[in-house]
Amino acid sequence: MRDVCIIGIGQTPIGELWDTSLRQLAYQALKAAAADAGIERPDALYVGNMLASRLSDQAQLGALVADFCGWRGIEAATVEAACASGGVAVQAGVRAIASGMADVVAVCGVEKMTEATSHEVTSGLATAADADYEVAHGVTFVALNALLMQRYMYEYDVPHEAFAPFSLNAHRNAVSNPNAMFRRAITLETYRKAPIIAPPINLYDSSPICDGAAAVILAPLAVARELGITPIRVLASVTATDCLNLDDRRDLLGLEAAQISAQKAYEQTGITPDDVDVFEVHDAFSIMAALSLEAAGFAERGKATHLARDGGIAPDGRVPISTMGGLKARGHPVGATGVYEIVDVVTQLRGEAGANQVQDAAIGMTQNIGGTGATVVTHILARE
Amino acid sequence: MRDVCIIGIGQTPIGELWDTSLRQLAYQALKAAAADAGIERPDALYVGNMLASRLSDQAQLGALVADFCGWRGIEAATVEAACASGGVAVQAGVRAIASGMADVVAVCGVEKMTEATSHEVTSGLATAADADYEVAHGVTFVALNALLMQRYMYEYDVPHEAFAPFSLNAHRNAVSNPNAMFRRAITLETYRKAPIIAPPINLYDSSPICDGAAAVILAPLAVARELGITPIRVLASVTATDCLNLDDRRDLLGLEAAQISAQKAYEQTGITPDDVDVFEVHDAFSIMAALSLEAAGFAERGKATHLARDGGIAPDGRVPISTMGGLKARGHPVGATGVYEIVDVVTQLRGEAGANQVQDAAIGMTQNIGGTGATVVTHILARE
User: Fold this and answer.
1) Which residues of A touch B73 (CB under 8 A)?
2) Which of A55, A115, B42, B95 could bond A95 through an S-S bridge, CB–CB 3.0 to 4.6 Å?
3) Which residues of B are catalytic?
C-alpha cells in the first residue's frame, strides 16, 4: 500500500452564487487545486455530491465535471453518503492511489442548493434520514437534530445557551476567511435573540443553505517529491456507519459511527486526541459539534460545552475547531463539506491560515458526518 | 497491489416487485452473495444506485443497506455514474481490497423503479444526459439513443431490421434464466410489429423499467483460498469517460469511453477480444449493444449487426452476449445492471449457466455504460 498525500487544494467562496452553475463551481475548485499542485490532468476524478440529482436534475457528475475541466477520458465517478459525500469521495481517491491503480487523483465536493425552492431543499436534505421510518412521519432533517439537542440538554442538564460558544467561535473565525459565507462575528446577545428553527435549535445553531465547491489533488508521496511539493500526508481515511433512523440507535448521544471511525483512525496511526492540533468538526448544527467532539475523544460525554465555554475550541485552545468558520459560518454546501474540511486542515498544516492560524499545527483531523450520524468519515493528516 | 477475486454472487429476480422495497431488494441480493461466499460480515459495502434519491426519497444507501443487512458499523458508501453505477461500485470494491484497506468487500447494485410514475422515471433517467445542454431542450433518454441509432443506420446504410438479432438473442437466452423479467422468446415478426418508442427505436430495441438487485463478494486471492472457494479473478476493472452530451462527441458512433476502457483493460491483462469467451454487453438499447461490440473490438465499425446476423452473439457464437437475457430481457434496473453483468459472467465462468452455458468459458468481460456512453466500465474476469 502506497503512502498518499495531498499536493493541491482549491475552493470557491461559499454563498448564494447565482452566477455560477453546478459544473462551474466544480471547475473553479478543481482548476485552483490543479494549479496549486502544478498538474495538468489527473488520472481519475471523484466527485462528492448529495443533491444534484434532485436539485439540478443532473446525475453522472463524475464524467460531466471531468469533461468540463478538459479531462475527457479519465476515470470518474460520483460518491455519495448524504452530508458525508465529500469525505467518502476523498476516501475513494485515497484508495485509487493506495492500490497503485492511479497516480494523480482529483477529488471535488460540490453542491448547488440555492437555485431550488426551500421546499425542494428541505425535502432533499431529508433524504439523509430514513425515508420509510423517519421522513414518512413528516419529520425534517433539522427536527431530527433538534430531538438530539433536546435529549442532550435533558440527559446532561445543559442549558441551551451553553451551545453559544460553538456558534460564536465559528463566526469569529469566519471573519478573516475570504471564502466564508458569513464574515461577521456575533455576540452572545445575537445568539440569545435568534429565531427558533426547530426548538431548541435556533438560527445560530444551524448552518446555511448555500453553494460551493472544494477540491484536493492526491498523489503518492514519491510523486509529490518529484514535483518538489511539500506534501500533507493522509495518515488515516476511515469510514464507519450506523443506522440512519435515530429510534434504532443503541446509544442515542454516543454517535457510534464517529466513535468507531475515530478509534480506527487512532489505531492505524498511533495518534491520540492529545496529539491533534486542529480538528475540523462537522458543526452542521451546534449539537453535532458537541457530539462529534465527545465521540472522537476530545471531551468527556456531556462535557463538550464545557470545553467550548473554557475556550478550548478557539484557535489557541486545546482543540481548535471550525478554524476557518466551520459549517456554521464558512458554510455547508452539503456534498462539498467533507472536502472543505480537508482543505481547511491542509491550510492550517501549511501555516497559511492567516489570522486563524493554529500555532505549529502539525497534525490535523476531520470528521465528516452524513445524516444524524449514519456515515462518519475521519481523516488524519500530517505535515511532512 | 493485491489480486482481487469474486467469492460470492447473489441476485433477486428482476421485475415489477411490488412486495419488495428498495432496502429489501439489496438485502436479498447481498445475503445470497454472502451465503454463496460463506461469509458473515464484510469489512465494507459499496452500493451502486442511480435513482433512489429521486424515486424513493432516499440518500445514503450505503449505511442504510449495511444496517438492514445486520452489518451496522462497517464502512459503506454509494457510488453513482448513471446506468454505470453498478460497474463503478464494483470498481470501488476492487480498490478497497487492492489497496489492502479491506479484506472482504460486498458490492450491491440496486434499483427500485416501478413504484414511481412514468413521468418520474422518464425525468429520472434523463438525469443521465446533460441537464443544461440536452434535457433542457426536452429530449428524453430514449430519444438520445434514437438519434444514435438513426445516425448509425444512415452512416453505415443498415436497415432497422438488422438490429432484430440482438433482441431475439436476448429474449431466447432469458427463457432459461429464472431471474429474468421476460422469459419468452420472440420472433422476427414480433420485432417487426413492435410499437415505436422513439423512431427508429421500437419496444424490442428497449430494455424495461424494473426493480432488482445483484451483489458480489470480493476478497483477496489468499482469503478465497483460505475459505476453500474456487475464485473468479478480477483481471481488470477500468473506467473511462466522455462528455455527456452527444453534440460534443468527437466521434459520435465511436463510443470513445468504451474504446478507452476496453483498450486499457486489454493492455493491463494482455487479453485480446479473441480471448474473450463471453461478453456481457450493455444492451439498454440494441444500438448500444452494437456500438459497444464495435468499440470493444469484437466487430469492425458498422459491422456489429453482421456479427449478430451470422449467429456470432449466440451462446455458441464467436462472442456470446446477453447470455442470461441481457438488459433487454433479463432486465435493466439501472443502478444494478453493472453488478448483474458481473454476476452473469461469474455464472458462466463457474459453468452454472444451464441451458445458456458457453462451453469452456474461461475468460469473461463486461461493459457497463452510463448515459449514452459518458461513463464506461470494463471488467475482465477469469476462472482460476
Assistant:
1) 240-242, 256-257, 260
2) B95
3) 83, 332
Task: Report the share of chain A in percent with pLDDT over 90.
Answer: 97
> Which residue out of B125, B135, B241 would a mutagenesis test of the A interface target, given it has the greatest number of A Cβ atoms within 10 Å?
B241
Cell numbers at residue A350, please? 501549511
pLDDT at A1 over 90: no
Bridge partners, A198 (sequence order): A201
Give me the domains of chain A, ranges plus CATH numbers.
4-117+210-232 (3.40.47.10), 141-206+235-383 (3.40.47.10)
pLDDT tens-place string over residues B345-359: 999 999 999 999 999
Q: Which of A63, A128, A260 is facing B244, going by the closest CB pair?
A: A63
Q: What is the pLDDT of residues A269-289, one digit of tens each?
A: 999 999 999 999 999 999 999
Instruction: State yes or no: pLDDT of A69 exceeds 70.
Output: yes
Please tell me the distance from the alpha carbon of residue A179 to that of residue A2, in angstroms, as a whole number.
33
What gap in Å lies between CA A155 and CA B61, rounded to an integer?
31
Asked if residue B1 has pLDDT above 80, the reply is no
Q: Evaluate whether ipTM surpasses 0.90.
A: yes
* Interatomic CA distance for residues A340 and A362, integer angstroms: 18
DSSP per-residue codes, B238-299: EEEE--SSGGG-SSTTT-HHHHHHHHHHHHHHT--GGG-SEEE---SBHHHHHHHHHHTTSS
